[in-house]
């Protein structure tokens, strides 16, 4: 099974199903689809396929810096946030790293590729799958070179306490621990600016952002890294392979921050459908559901004789199994918030599954 959601073709091939009949709840992509202006821009820019993109991606970096009111030299765009996870890991080359589990698989893979000693810090059900100030005690004991943390977390969708995050940033800066904060899903939280404003006063903080999920452009691949360590950003740019971002993705990235109507409509959709899915799933006595902050929900199936993944696949619904996340087992799942009709189909299918055991 894939380590990531969105593997519609692989699942369809494995189970002999037509891919176009499956509804994908396994990938956390905005169901509104890409903004219309994005589609028009690509259609009108087809001649760009015959030219190399700017190897420095100047306009794209300027747009990101302007959107976040930060220094142009603090920004590095990439082929999705994933490219930048590997770039920052290779640049920092930590001897020892702490990973919160469960968490996104690519942090571990990137660290393993350079031989880093990885220490797992389990987020448990007893602590609500949330880190707290005890993490700082652990850091002082094991003294890692770097820490990865996702806000909101993937797969739990939970957002750590803001005061805790502030304490973590200050502690890591004081102790010279590289803190890599993955904010790939933070755009779905309308009132949360994240930690990018703090890069102006820090040198050990690195913020990862994705444009793929919120703007529904996973096929284009686009993300960016922001850090107050501008020398480090420059070094990463110098080290990486040229032209890793295609011309269309670069052009699209220049206009996405101006999609104010799309951004507002997304927040309105999510407020409605996130609440619907949360209340409907929470009504099942067979499930334990954690209150979401982003565009996906994390839950445990308490009925041991039910394999929800295979059962829902029979209803042409693909959800994300979480058993391959460190610290989780086959009882845990994640589902994206989709459009109203798709969310209703999921709830109806679950009712049938639990009714028939």
From TrEMBL:
Instruction: Give the Gene Ontology MF terms in alphabetical order.
Output: threonine-phosphate decarboxylase activity
Please provide the record's keywords in A-Z order: Cobalamin biosynthesis, Lyase, Pyridoxal phosphate
Is Lyase a UniProt keyword of this protein? yes
Identify the domain of life: Bacteria
Residue ranges of the Aminotransferase class I/classII large domain?
22-349
Q: Which residues form a coiled coil?
A: none
Q: Which SUPFAM superfamilies match?
A: PLP-dependent transferases (SSF53383)
Co-factor requirement: pyridoxal 5'-phosphate
The record's EC number reads 4.1.1.81
EC class (word) = lyase
Database matches in Pfam families: Aminotran_1_2 (PF00155)
Q: In which pathway does it act?
A: Cofactor biosynthesis; adenosylcobalamin biosynthesis
Against InterPro entries, the record matches this protein to: Aminotransferase_I/II_large (IPR004839), CobD (IPR005860), NHTrfase_class1_PyrdxlP-BS (IPR004838), PyrdxlP-dep_Trfase (IPR015424), PyrdxlP-dep_Trfase_major (IPR015421), PyrdxlP-dep_Trfase_small (IPR015422)
Catalytic activity as recorded in UniProt: O-phospho-L-threonine + H(+) = (R)-1-aminopropan-2-yl phosphate + CO2
The record, for CDD domains, names: AAT_like
Residues annotated as transmembrane: none
What does this protein's UniProt record list under function?
Decarboxylates L-threonine-O-3-phosphate to yield (R)-1-amino-2-propanol O-2-phosphate, the precursor for the linkage between the nucleotide loop and the corrin ring in cobalamin.
The protein in question is named threonine-phosphate decarboxylase
**Species this protein is from:** Xenorhabdus anantnagensis
Query: Gene name?
Result: cobD
């Amino acid at each position: 099974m894939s380590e990531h959601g969105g593997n519609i073709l692989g699942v369809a091939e494995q189970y002999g199903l037509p891919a176009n009949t499956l509804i994908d709840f396994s990938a956390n992509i905005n169901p509104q689809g890409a903004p219309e202006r994005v589609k028009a821009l690509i259609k009108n820019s087809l001649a760009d396929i015959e030219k190399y993109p700017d190897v420095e991606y100047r306009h794209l970096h300027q747009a990101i810096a302007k959107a976040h009111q930060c220094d142009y030299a603090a920004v590095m765009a990439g082929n999705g946030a994933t490219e930048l996870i590997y770039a920052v890991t290779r640049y920092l080359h930590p001897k020892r790293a702490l990973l919160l589990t469960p968490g996104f698989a690519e942090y571990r893979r990137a660290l393993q590729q350079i031989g880093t000693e990885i220490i797992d810090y389990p987020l448990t059900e007893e602590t609500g799958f949330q880190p707290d100030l005890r993490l700082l005690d652990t850091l002082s004991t094991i003294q890692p070179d770097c820490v990865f943390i996702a806000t909101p977390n993937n797969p739990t969708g939970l957002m750590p306490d803001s005061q805790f995050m502030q304490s973590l940033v200050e502690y890591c800066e004081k102790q010279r621990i590289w803190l890599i904060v993955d904010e790939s899903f933070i755009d779905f939280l309308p009132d949360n600016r994240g930690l990018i404003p703090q890069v102006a006063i820090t040198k050990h903080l690195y913020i990862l952002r994705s444009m793929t999920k919120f703007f529904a452009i996973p096929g284009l691949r686009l993300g960016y890294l922001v850090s107050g360590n501008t020398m480090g950003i420059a070094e990463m740019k110098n080290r990486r392979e040229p032209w890793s971002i295609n011309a269309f993705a670069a052009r699209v990235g220049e206009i996405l921050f101006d999609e104010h109507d799309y951004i507002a409509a997304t927040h309105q959709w999510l407020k409605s459908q996130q609440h619907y899915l949360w209340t409907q799933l929470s009504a099942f006595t067979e499930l334990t559901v954690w209150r979401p902050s982003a565009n996906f929900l994390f839950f445990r199936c308490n009925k041991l004789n039910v394999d929800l993944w295979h059962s829902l696949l029979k209803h042409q619904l693909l959800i994300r199994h979480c058993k391959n996340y460190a610290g989780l087992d086959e009882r845990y799942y994640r589902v994206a918030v989709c459009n109203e009709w798709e969310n209703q189909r999921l709830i109806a299918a679950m009712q049938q599954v639990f009714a028939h055991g």
